[in-house]
Amino acid sequence: MSGPAKRVTIRDVAKHAGVSVATVSRTLAGDYPVQPATRHKVLQAVGELDYVRNAHARALSVAAPGAVAIVINSVATAYYSYIAQGVEEQATAEGRLCLICTTGGDPQRELAVVQMMREQRAEAVILVGSVIQDDDYKRRMTRYAHSLADSGSCLALCGRPPLGDGVPAFTVGFDNTGGAHAITTHLLSAGHRRILYLGLRLGQSTSDSRVAGYRTALADFGAVYDPELEVGCGYDRSSGYAAMKHRLAAGAGDFTRDFTAVFAATDVIAAGAFQAIREHGLRIPDDISIVGYDDTPPAEDIGLTTVHLPHAELGRAAVRLALSGKNPLVEAPITLGTHIVVRNSVKRVGNVR
Amino acid sequence: MSGPAKRVTIRDVAKHAGVSVATVSRTLAGDYPVQPATRHKVLQAVGELDYVRNAHARALSVAAPGAVAIVINSVATAYYSYIAQGVEEQATAEGRLCLICTTGGDPQRELAVVQMMREQRAEAVILVGSVIQDDDYKRRMTRYAHSLADSGSCLALCGRPPLGDGVPAFTVGFDNTGGAHAITTHLLSAGHRRILYLGLRLGQSTSDSRVAGYRTALADFGAVYDPELEVGCGYDRSSGYAAMKHRLAAGAGDFTRDFTAVFAATDVIAAGAFQAIREHGLRIPDDISIVGYDDTPPAEDIGLTTVHLPHAELGRAAVRLALSGKNPLVEAPITLGTHIVVRNSVKRVGNVR
């Protein structure tokens, strides 16, 4: 950025940070565990003195700030990208860079990414998204948590269940059971009793908690639980479209459909279902009421009543916690509340059956 | 993953790769320039032998594959996240990890990210998105290109103008002028002559090329060019809403509006404009025709006629080129074509004026 200046040495950095040369060296090399507080002091000194580790790196003439990494399945899904945006905002506010790593849901890529972030000396690694909580998953996460802790970094889980005692990982999640209970109650209060749940994915942590809220709300209203009304469906628009199309076609011979409302497990599923319902010649909400979950595009544009998730706040909370210096072994999980956003996709009906 | 095994040493890696121990060391440390072909051999040997550089890293027991980094303003914008998804797909297909770095449009963060990716030994760094092509920008990019080339990596620009001769950078972009020309012609062919361009951002490379296509199409049809019809607007939904609202309110006293169609510079602007038009009591396309640009959500859900950009293909093309081993000093820029997707937002009208 500027002309030649006196070369800053590792000794200048050590003096400025008030630590030994060996500590600076270890912090920058990442070969040995360094306390987060010490690491911050060193990196701050590196930043303030514009110290660079070798002659080639001088070409770019800045010291790299610390980094926070967020690991997600895909960046083209609003749920993930909104959480990532929160991580990015908070990381930036705390003077860190933000790296977003994608895995496509592949555990091998996840492992490679976590290792890379460890070598990159990321201060925190945040893993996001629904999981199947089997033994393999728990073993893998426990290994990541210990490995990152050993290197002075830490693991934070977002939208995933806690790993349990003795595993050094922070947990931040949404109250999905509460959100699903509230939106199902919204439909029940409008007189709906036969509510199609579109998006069943057995064993997936996020799906399980939403279905649990749906079932509890039905029970609270004394509505009959009918497993026929819980339909499996991928979490994308075309799956929502296909599943709704199939369900509407199946009921074509009957004098009436066996549901008056749809609870789509995500807004994107709801958007696909909207199209199928329209193509079937039915009107929303006059003929069928529908609600979604997430409050991501296109909910606002199609007038979908849905559950708002504070995606960005989840990301921010994870970063705040991960950089807080608190002990992940004793911190309680954080659960963020949700709320319903009422738009134009639900109509009051007389009770059926 | 498995139990204890004989420790692989740096000498094993050097032998396996057919290079010297010093070369392996340099490749892994990233302190000296290494030829890409050599680097690949070393990293392949590292992978095949499951070599890890120090005892601590053994906790995770895999060798990190090479990485491709994509640098974008924000991950919560579909334009960027769709391109990032293409980068991710191609990087995975070529056995690389994908890192997504966000800058919020801040050159300081961009610089820090590029430096980090250089230290991380990313094989390619892909910078995406519209820019203001001033001298500072060109100097910065030239510096990145040389610095990355020195370290055996390379720079690729996506959706940005080429840097010119002598700068080692690949360029891949959309034909925005062609796309804007085609969609404007679509409106002109439907009889519209007074077309509001919503989203002017003078000096921004992407905006400039879209506006150029709009103006040329008007000229080709002999329509009068009226700078009053080019309206500045941020590239987000609420800006589109506010700008449209303001424009409709301004024309409230007139016996007629001074435009019959709107060309929104992005689909997201169009979505905001949709809402403003509806709130004004007007129908699309009966009262106003509107087209967008990008073909990202919510275009499909609101029935918006728009210009489809092959976002993912742009990302894939950038990765293919960056990992091709070709010489960025002599490779010609790649320009990807676009096409119109016709939905339900344009109505044929009698010519006005």
TrEMBL record, chains A, B:
Record's keyword terms, sorted: DNA-binding, Transcription, Transcription regulation
Superkingdom, taxonomy of origin: Bacteria
PROSITE patterns: HTH_LACI_2
Pfam families in UniProt: LacI, Peripla_BP_3
Classification via Gene3D superfamilies: 3.40.50.2300, lambda repressor-like DNA-binding domains
Segments forming a coiled coil: none
Record SMART domains: HTH_LACI
Keyword DNA-binding listed: yes
GO molecular function, one term: DNA-binding transcription factor activity
CDD domains (UniProt xref): HTH_LacI, PBP1_LacI_sugar_binding-like
SUPFAM superfamilies for this protein: lambda repressor-like DNA-binding domains, Periplasmic binding protein-like I
Domain HTH lacI-type: 8-62
Protein name from the UniProt record: LacI family transcriptional regulator
Species of provenance: Nonomuraea rubra
Phylogenetic lineage: Bacteria, Bacillati, Actinomycetota, Actinomycetes, Streptosporangiales
